[in-house]
Amino acid sequence: MEPLQSSGCSCTKEATVGQAVIEKNVQWGKIILLGLLSFGLWLVIYNNLEPFSSYITYSFFEINRGSQLGGAIQFFLYDTPKVMMLLTLIVFVIGVIRSFFTQERTRQYLAGKRETAGNVMAALLGIVTPFCSCSAVPLFLGFVQAGIPLGVTFSFLIAAPMVNEIALVLLYGLLGWKVAALYLSTGLLIAMIAGWVIGRLKLEPWIEDWVREMRAGEALVLERKLSWSDRIDQGKDAVLDIVGKVWIYMVAGIAVGAFIHGYVPEDFMAQIMGKDAWWSVPAAVVVGIPMYSNAAGIVPVVEALLCKGAALGTVLAFMMSVIALSLPEMIILRKVLKPKLIAVFVLVVGCGIVFTGYLFNAIV
Amino acid sequence: MEIKVCGPGCASCEKTQKAVEAAVAAKGVQATIVKVKDFQEIAQLGVFSTPAVVIDGQVKCVGRVPKQSEIETWIS
């Protein structure tokens, strides 16, 4: 809040305003300079990780090149810092982007939309709106209250966990941008189409009765004015929060990946998860649905499986079903949805994932 | 003063609860802190994203964990 100013001499007032502008510019300069410097440093370290990990493994520890142990250790020493650095960068950027979006604003955007356009927008907003599975129920109630169609709501609820920034980053870092792009686009498509299908099925009667009869309070929108330094702070908070939470899973995931990398024979996975095993895609999805792991732990395992001859579509289908559909989320959604609707939700999304799996196996 | 912390009890809700307790202790104000976990009750307050803080019926923040310093300005 601005302090009340006594009506003093206008020239001093102008001077203070001028000074404020200069101070603001200086602050901006500092932010940009610091940003560029740290990004430059980040790039230098990132680009030298591979030679460094080789040096430590083969020269410092003197492990034989080409040995199983060497392969596993070098994989671990290279991938752990690489993935952590990528994760820190992306979580920070996403944290800043998310400061522009709130669930309230997303609800307002979607409130007036018709079904098809609504499905598309809901899936896209699902990526950038801050969301955790425990706020799924209040969010659902808010969407119902705002008159947003059920199918559009589901497009959001599917995209929000499925298109996960951590998974995206790891796929990019470990498997390249093509796989990351495929994951992003098919994740969005599944959310849009599955939501649209659920909308067509007219399943509103399968929402719990109390939700439909609910007389909720007026939904309020609290707008906060955020400065850029607030947004940068939010990015930093996101890094501390997310990286602090997932690093242990990530390291464990990479360790498992390193083991598979070094010790599991090259074609071991080809028989069970290869292209020729037609049943492997649905089997991977069925196994993945009740499992709940965050993306951080699952992606390094995915990479290792791929290296050992598992087919991309099968592995991606497994990963998607693990992160998009989970038992804890279903249990929490049970409070607002009847079991039949949850079953349809799982079935429609599961079919979408199976289809994607086959598609990838066919084209890659 | 009555402070309601809305949320089903996930990690962010617990953080919010702690921040509220710390703010009340720091300011030394008389306040009862109530956890609201029932979704229907939360919706009736006009809150559709958690965690949220409601002070004497007035919603102060929704969908994020407020900082302790922020909460102190609400209760003093």
Essential attributes:
heterodimer; A: 364 residues; mainly alpha; 76% helix; 0% strand; flat; disordered N terminus; B: 76 residues; alpha+beta; 4-stranded mixed β-sheet; 4 strands; 25% strand; globular
Distance between the termini of chain B: 11 Å
Helical fraction of chain B: 40-55%
Radius of gyration of chain B, Cα only, in angstroms?
11 Å
**Large-scale geometry of chain A:** flat
Mean residue pLDDT of chain B: 89
The main pleated sheet of chain A reads as: none
Radius of gyration of chain A: 24 Å
- Pick out the low-confidence regions of chain B: none
Oligomerization state: heterodimer
The secondary-structure element order of chain A is: HHHHHHHHHHHHHHHHH
Are there runs of chain A of 5+ residues with pLDDT below 50, and where?
Answer: 1-10
Topology:
The complex is a heterodimer of chains A (364) and B (76).
Chain A: H1 10-47, H2 49-60, H3 68-98, H4 103-111, H5 115-128, H6 136-145, H7 150-162, H8 165-175, H9 177-200, H10 209-212, H11 228-263, H12 268-273, H13 280-288, H14 295-307, H15 312-324, H16 327-333, H17 339-363
Helix pairs in contact in A: 2-3, 3-8, 3-11, 5-7, 5-9, 7-9, 7-15, 8-9, 8-14, 9-17, 11-14, 13-15, 13-17, 14-15, 15-17
Chain B: E1 2-6, H1 11-27, E2 32-36, H2 39-44, E3 52-55, E4 58-62, H3 68-75
Parallel strand pairs in B: 1-2
Antiparallel strand pairs in B: 1-3, 3-4
Can you describe what's shown?
The complex is a heterodimer of chains A (364) and B (76). In chain A, 76% of the residues lie in helices and 0% in strands. Chain A is built from 17 helices and no strands. Chain A has helices spanning 10-47, 49-60, 68-98, 103-111, 115-128, 136-145, 150-162, 165-175, 177-200, 209-212, 228-263, 268-273, 280-288, 295-307, 312-324, 327-333, 339-363. Chain A is flat and about 70 Å long. The termini of chain A are far apart. In chain B, helix 1 links the parallel strand 1 (2-6) and strand 2. A four-stranded mixed beta sheet of chain B has the order 2-1-3-4. The radius of gyration of chain B is 11 Å and the shape is globular. Chain B has three helices and four strands. Helix content of chain B is 41%, strand content 25%. The interface between A and B is medium-sized, with 26 and 23 residues.
